Amino acid sequence: MSSASAATAETSSTADVLDVRVAKAMAADDTAGETVKQPSASGSSEGLQPDAKIIGGSETTIGSAPWMAQLWYYDDTTGLGFFCGGSVVSPTKILTAAHCVDKNHYNWAAYGTVVTGTDQLPTAVYNDDGSFNHTDYHGGTPSELSRQWNHSSYNEDAINNDIAVLTLTKPVTATPIKMTTSTDTSSYTAGTSAKVYGWGRTSSTSDDISQTLKTATLPIVSDTTCANTWSPYFIKGNMVCAGKPAGGTDATTTTSCNGDSGGPLVVGNKVIGVVSWGVVDCVAKGAYPVFAKVSKYVGVTYPRVDDTDISRDGRADVFLRNKETGTGYVRASQGSSLADRSSLESRGTWKGYNLVQQTDLNRDGHQDFVLRRSSDGDVFWRRYVPSTGSWTTTQIFDNWSTRTRILTPGDVTGDALPDLLSVDSAGALWIYPGKGNGTFGTRVKVGTGWNTYNAVLGHGDFTGDGKADLIARTKTGSNVYLYKGTGKSGTGAFATRIKVRSDWSAYNTLITPGDVSGDGRADLLARTPGGTLYLYKGTSKATSEIFSTRVSVGTSYAQYDLLG
């Protein structure tokens, strides 16, 4: 990347590690996904690479695209360094391309840095003697990362399933952008105007990337046209093309190019595509750039955005309160089992409450709790405050003692913010739309008749469509029903119920902490009166096969009166 200084960044006692890392990444000239092999399918693969850049676009500002993120990677053990783009889809989550993240080749927690809040690339500043001084982020914020995820079926040969999510260690203030929904078809109609954003190459004859954020308007291309152009490499349903056929020169082409990889293709203020691949130098006559189709992947991506847990490893953990001592504990998930319990007393007392729900109301990447006080029904939000390193508890609702159910399923309304639901004494289900800061908008009624259930619960997506769902068990017959979320509010928030289990009377407690197994699917745990706790892993099937065969995770759970 020739826009970076040619000098080698030297570590000094005063230089921040992120400054040095970004400076070295800028000075490197590697390409994300360079380990990707050429597709082995029949036909010519000449020029096919997992690259992209904006040629023929125009400069824009971070105010117009506040969710844009720069992804800088430099491995000081190998000297490998490269740049990609990404989108802030939650304060701690970055949506990007799998070929930028590929866990088989890159360790982003150790060697990556994400910069948000600026439309300018960083500048490495050097002393008069040539030694490194600092990195100027031009008003942007550099962030470290805690973990990475790319699609489990990412194929580096075919550049297929090219979708990934990076998790930041701390939330950023950049305004997130929503991912499109799994049912979105209109955004992919041929001719629809979409916008691509990035800092990639601006010319087919130069490796220089753009110092300033650029954008270009590209019309969506039909699958038929794209397949005719890219056969056999284009995979219908997983990929989408956009733009006009490249003209063979910079002057006759508008397209994404090298350095734009991982950046967003946007329609209607939602990400519908992620820059994936194209031709070498980007302007070969008749070519189109290819994007990962977000509507196909939001079902597996959404759980990675909404995966806050107590241990912060991407697997939902189980909260427990001992009924004799009132002590709060966590058993961290180990995928198919639970670790030994650890006390949560450092986070405040758990005595005097009759409900505890796990959530992350402010999307800061730290596990929150919603609690209801037994004495008066007041509801509280307990959260971690990173600036002080302490926990605080604040009241969010008054006198909810008559609410028969309070649950925190995640984003029900489709605005990318966590919501809270409750069932009142008359059996009406209400949505309290979250504002992302622990406060809520005016409640919206979903419907009545919910007092026919002795359990209404949910945390995450049970059906694999990227929308939060509910599970309910009837008082009579103990039958279990699935209510598929629609991403809407009010009476249309959930589809008609689907019966998924009969006679679950053997269990006295059901809990849905989220994705316990870590596979991106919401799971359920069920306890018998004798204290045996079973894990039912989700399958994403909206049928009687919604859960796989149960697995026992222990027999000592009768001692707890609150599980969540």
Describe, in plain words, how this protein is organized in 3D:
- By secondary structure, the protein is mainly beta.
- Helix content is 7%, strand content 34%.
- The protein has five helices and 38 strands.
- The strands form eight sheets. Strands 9-6-3-4-5-11-10 form a seven-stranded antiparallel beta sheet. The chain has a six-stranded antiparallel beta barrel with strand order 13-14-15-18-17-16. Strands 21-20-19-38 form a four-stranded antiparallel beta sheet, with no helix packed on it.
- The longest helix is centred in the middle third of the chain and has 12 residues, at 294-305.
- The radius of gyration is 25 Å and the shape is globular.
- Residues 1-15 and 34-53 have low confidence and may be disordered.
Number of helices: 5
User: Segments where pLDDT lies below 50 for 5+ residues?
Assistant: 1-15, 34-53
Distance between the termini: 49 Å
What percent of residues are in strands?
25-35%
* Morphology: globular
